[in-house]
């Protein structure tokens, strides 16, 4: 190492003990990219809760060029794909146009919970798979259009769910050997390679036909605006062209990758957050009672029994509960590593160009210098502008960042908040949630695709 480099090396912040794997939110990437090692200096912790780090200057590259949003380096392709997702699918007006499909998914969820709880002697239901089914159902409609999903809903959800679980197995850390020694590992570990291929093929088999059906439906109607349906994510991808590459259209495998990213990024994280929030409502009955009382004040005469999305805006305590759930139990603890394009100095430490930077999301929300009694579940801290009115987008200072922050912040923030508030409100409105007899809710964590409950929640559901 040249003396100059050695000097630079000593200024860098503490290193993590071993290369940190990117968090599992990056599931959609091809396997060699999820398992991306950090060969460059890695930062153990960078805490942008300090005021001068409001906008972390670290928002750039993520590794080799990839045509998915989360894997793409900062540049024209990333901008194009991200803008397309944000303006064509996650724009509030477009999200609103899928409210019927969310209502259908919610009714289906409530019915399934009712049936299962009635069928059990103790009325206790293991809820997480139902939550996952519901969030996936809602995202599938937004991705492929209501018609495509409605016709064969249960099968589609089942197949996509299996596809995502297969992909999860092939992204586990033992597969990292394939990334570092591709040639050798083909001879040494043929079974692991076969599993990777299987996961890729399963994505093509499951998602390919859904994309083709939608393209055909659009062609038959001249274009997607003419078919009387709400435009979905696939419609925008089929129409997208890349100016930097001569205006070419996206290929089928690129569209499959982007749809897979959409589903992977949104379904598990939302279902995980929902499970954590409901577990806390079971544990803290006083908080659940307050949510119920607030709903009663807002929707006294609702004929249908389902709380409407418009009513959620009036429920400030509900929002506080969701925020506290995301602070105390962020589904993603360590996001995909970021990198700096130029040397920057943070808190006296040099962050050299290209260094991988790892944000410890959970630690930020638990920082005792920022939060009073950080490990307690106390939604009251967010009520009446408490905590300086935390801004989840990080524009007014970062005190917690369950969705990341800055340029690469999760584009699904508003949709996730809507899903969580809508499901929590309606689930509390429909049932009283309690623990099984002689059982305490166990809040121990487990790292899976997201950081989830080690002992999944079993809740007794009594109709209100
Ligand atoms: C509770 C639910 C969710 C949580 C906690 C969550 C969290 C995150 C986090 C921590 C990141 C990384 C940010 C960073 O690198 O700084 C991220 C990125 C991303 N999320 Fe989410 N997410 C959720 C739901 C969703 C949904 C519903 C979608 C889309 C439908 C989505 C799509 C994405 C995409 C595409 C990225 C990559 C953004 C980029 O690199 O520019 N997420 N999310």
Automatic annotation (TrEMBL):
Protein keywords: Heme, Iron, Membrane, Metal-binding, Monooxygenase, Oxidoreductase, Transmembrane, Transmembrane helix
Biased composition (Basic and acidic residues): 1-11
Provenance organism: Stephania japonica
Protein family per UniProt: Belongs to the cytochrome P450 family.
Name of this chain's protein: Cytochrome P450
SUPFAM superfamilies hit by this protein: Cytochrome P450
Reported cofactor(s): heme
Segments of skewed composition (Basic residues): 22-39
Intracellular or extracellular location(s): Membrane
Topological category with respect to the lipid bilayer: Single-pass membrane protein
Location of the region described as Disordered in the Swiss-Prot/TrEMBL record: 1-71
Binding-site residues, heme: 410
InterPro entries reported for this sequence: Cyt_P450, Cyt_P450_CS, Cyt_P450_E_grp-I, Cyt_P450_sf, Plant_metabolite_P450s
Source organism, top-level taxon: Eukaryota
An example Gene Ontology molecular-function term: iron ion binding
GO biological process: secondary metabolite biosynthetic process
GO cellular component, one term: membrane
């Amino acid at each position: 190492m040249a003396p100059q480099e050695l000097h630079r090396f000593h200024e860098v912040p503490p290193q993590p003990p071993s290369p940190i794997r990117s968090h599992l939110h990056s599931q959609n990437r091809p396997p060699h990219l999820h398992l991306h090692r950090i060969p460059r200096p890695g930062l153990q912790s960078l805490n942008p809760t300090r005021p001068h780090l409001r906008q972390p200057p670290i928002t750039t590259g993520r590794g080799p060029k990839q045509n998915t949003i989360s894997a793409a380096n900062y540049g024209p392709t990333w901008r194009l794909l991200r803008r397309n997702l944000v303006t064509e699918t996650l724009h509030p007006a477009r999200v609103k146009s899928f409210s019927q499909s969310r209502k259908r998914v919610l009714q289906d969820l409530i019915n399934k919970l009712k049936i299962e709880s009635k069928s059990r002697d103790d009325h206790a239901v293991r809820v997480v798979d139902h939550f996952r089914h519901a969030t996936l159902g809602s995202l599938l409609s937004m991705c492929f259009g209501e018609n495509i999903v409605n016709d064969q809903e249960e099968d589609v959800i089942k197949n996509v769910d299996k596809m995502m679980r297969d992909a999860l197995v092939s992204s586990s850390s033992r597969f990292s050997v394939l990334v570092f020694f591709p040639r050798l590992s083909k001879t040494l570990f043929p079974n692991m390679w076969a599993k990777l291929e299987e996961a890729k093929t399963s994505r093509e088999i499951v998602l390919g036909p859904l994309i083709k059906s939608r393209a055909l439906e659009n062609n038959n109607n001249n274009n997607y605006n003419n078919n009387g349906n709400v435009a979905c994510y696939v419609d925008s991808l089929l129409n997208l062209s890349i100016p930097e590459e001569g205006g070419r259209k996206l290929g089928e495998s690129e569209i499959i990758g982007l749809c897979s990213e959409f589903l992977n990024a949104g379904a598990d994280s939302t279902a995980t957050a929902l499970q954590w929030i409901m577990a806390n409502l079971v544990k803290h009955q006083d908080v659940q009672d307050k949510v119920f009382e607030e709903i009663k004040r807002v929707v006294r005469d609702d004929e249908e029994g389902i709380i409407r999305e418009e009513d959620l805006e009036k429920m400030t305590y509900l929002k506080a509960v969701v925020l506290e759930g995301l602070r105390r139990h962020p589904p993603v603890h360590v996001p995909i590593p970021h990198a700096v394009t130029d040397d920057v100095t943070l808190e006296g430490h040099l962050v050299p160009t290209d260094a991988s930077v790892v944000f410890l999301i959970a630690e930020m929300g638990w920082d005792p210098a920022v939060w009073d009694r950080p490990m307690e579940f106390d939604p009251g801290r967010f009520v009446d502008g408490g905590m300086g009115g935390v801004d989840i987008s990080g524009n007014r200072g970062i005190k917690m960042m369950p969705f990341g922050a800055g340029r690469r912040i999760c584009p699904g923030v508003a949709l996730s908040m809507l899903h969580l508030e809508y499901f929590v409100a309606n689930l509390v409105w429909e049932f009283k949630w309690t623990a099984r007899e002689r059982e305490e809710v166990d809040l121990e964590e487990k790292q899976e695709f997201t950081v989830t409950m080690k002992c999944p929640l079993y809740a007794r559901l009594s109709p209100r």
